[in-house]
Amino acid sequence: MAATMKDIAKRTGLGLATISSYFNGGNVREKNRAKIEEAIEELHYEVNEVARGLKTNATKTIGVVIPELNSIFCSEIITGMEDILRSHGYATIICDCRTNRALEKDAVEFLTRKRVDGIINMPVDITGSHLCDFQKTGKPIVLIDRRITGVECDSVLVDNEKAARDAVELLLENGHRNIGIIGGPREVSTAKERLEGYCKACRDAGIPVRESLIYHGDYTIQGGVQALETLVNRNQDMTAVFVTNYEMTLGAVIGLNELGIHIPEELSVIGFDNLEFARACSPKLTIVSQPTEEIGREVARIILARLEGKETEKINQKLQTEMIMGKSVSKICR
Amino acid sequence: MAATMKDIAKRTGLGLATISSYFNGGNVREKNRAKIEEAIEELHYEVNEVARGLKTNATKTIGVVIPELNSIFCSEIITGMEDILRSHGYATIICDCRTNRALEKDAVEFLTRKRVDGIINMPVDITGSHLCDFQKTGKPIVLIDRRITGVECDSVLVDNEKAARDAVELLLENGHRNIGIIGGPREVSTAKERLEGYCKACRDAGIPVRESLIYHGDYTIQGGVQALETLVNRNQDMTAVFVTNYEMTLGAVIGLNELGIHIPEELSVIGFDNLEFARACSPKLTIVSQPTEEIGREVARIILARLEGKETEKINQKLQTEMIMGKSVSKICR
DNA sequence: ATGAAAGCGCTAACAA
DNA sequence: TTGTTAGCGCTTTCAT
Predict the structure, then answer these.
(1) Are the beta carbons of A254 and B279 separated by less than 8 Å?
(2) Which domains does chain B have, with CATH numbers?
(3) What would the pLDDT profile of A97-137 be if each residue is shown by its tens digit?
(4) Considering only CA atoms, which residue is closest to the C1' of nucleotide C9?
């Protein structure tokens, strides 16, 4: 068995309170401090955070529930976030719910039993019903990327409408009129907002929105392949396509590749996320880039503030995206 | 405050042991069972796993320490693994140590304090010194992907030598003689083995290994870009290059792109991992593909077996890779 | 089948 | 500053 504080007390002849005080930054006489440190060394003592957690009712653990770990948008956010949280003594338990509402609910219950101090969630269930019980514990919840209807809590989102508007306007400026969009699932807020940006940009340019140019994808690679094929087949006059997340962008490029369609001569493309992938495409892909690092940092900052009891008003951060110019958009002269 | 077993006891008039027995599959009279269930419902009771962990000396939590979460090889392995572990009631705390030995050591100590029941590690420190103290607890450690020298434990590896040999032999069969390799860090076992496979294949074909064709990269994207540029510059006669992980493959493709070198006319390429990226390349990239899902499954299986006290002998799994044919290798006629 | 009580390793209130 | 002690919520004997 591992050494306990009792062992240290016995070995040093001190009381438990002194040892505890030592670990919690209290005042301990220099002599005793040395004794304690020696004992720790000898016994290879490590604080038992489980026991501490039981007593303090705080596990120093944050639960993270996301749709797909194996998605670069998620993993980039988590990387930065976890770094900060760990440096503040918090562990993160990550639950990948495979874009499945039932699994998402399971994950939150699981984390509730684990008594995590807070939950960070990129929600799949837009009603937020999976979070209701946890919220009753009074512990903080921070939402990433997507809005939900049922639950009021802090969130870090991206200005998706503007992101899409920027992309579509770039295409319009280059003379494109028949622009396809590979959107996301109808119920996901980011997808709605991106589609809305697309529609607004078109309308503002006096171009009627045509249903056949809109494809509601599922944010997966294979979905992107299929979306591209469908759009190409049913729109002979389409000269450009805007793809609204990374996985589908990858899928669309695969589709174009396998159909032998050349970018940008035959079809202009604007993708989403993953700068490095964009650079690896030939010609380099023009993309909308989300500030994943910043999202991770902000989420960490917000939940830490809540855990320390700061911040009273709801925080609803909205971050901006950036267009990264490549060579995948051609100029059309009429 | 959340409800406790005491609250249920009070509400049902039963003793604590009965409630506990109910939760742990013991025999409880049907009448009482119903009463308990009603109370759970009413009080929104959720087991406190922290308290349970303190008592049972098992947290039902596994620590995972990896070099980079934001690497597809890692995230694919973790995805499958976490799925299985969670379905067995285990949480996974993931620590991304940023390919840094000091952070890796910190992570293991952190997990030790958290009293995780076991550690899964894709090691950065090849001496394994970061694992020594944890190993003394008698809890299981499973290594992924890389060998270490100091510590004896279960591992799930890949046959890297064969993987590299397959790739190089394919190039040789197609008439290539001046084959470059973008290898990994000298001290990492996978890199050594892949380089060894490259060297053996060359020697077996009667081709002397030329130092200038070997680049020791760092397994990062930017490292891949630089490696490719270096190899191309110092080997005018190089007709093919073998890249030994995904990030560097992405980097190499970026480099080729930016230098305007065509695959495979000017340079044949064999990459590593990420089938989808390979499909998105034009022409489709030929790659060595590692069985990430299987690795994840095996790791989960092994650590679960250990946790249940099964398995006595050290397990050293070695899985095979697969060549996925694309069109990035040209045939050279002489 | 159920109840009473001890104790897992820690913190914190109180006393000294 | 340091020691004593109660108790966090659970499991687990040991009785009954």
Answers:
(1) yes
(2) 5-47 (1.10.260.40), 59-157+292-319 (3.40.50.2300), 160-290 (3.40.50.2300)
(3) 999 999 999 999 999 999 999 999 999 999 999 999 999 99
(4) A51
